[in-house]
Design a protein that fits this description.
The protein has 141 residues and is mainly α. It is built from 9 helices and no strands. The protein has one domain (14-140).
Amino acid sequence: MADQKYFYQDGYSAQEEKKLKRYEEWAGKSLDEVKEGIVNDSLNEEQYGAFSIEFWKDESLVFACLKAEHDIELIFNNVRKFLWRDKEFVLSVMSERWYYPLTSIEFQDQEFNYFDYIHESLKNDEDVAVALSKLKNLETS
């Protein structure tokens, strides 16, 4: 037993160090800097936790992430709950443009249910139902 050696990790792995550095890079940034990072591909879904959760109140951040074809579920999981009560916002994110963009197969293959996000008050709304129906028709075509 005495010749068995145990190694304990001291500090962080190289991968963890790299992740922490990326987090630190975005921690103090403004909303505009974060959006710019998304547009120029220097910020991705892995750094969502690095910047202020308050930024997710801003619809333009959501649309910047959608345009960059980030994981739609990760985007929507970060969106502040009150936005899912806003009919205009809900209809905007349910647009065919985001659901089925022509540029990325990986983005097209993401499956999720908008009803997981939409506030109860809008689930029976006629316009929301029509938009959802359009998206379901895209799935079958």
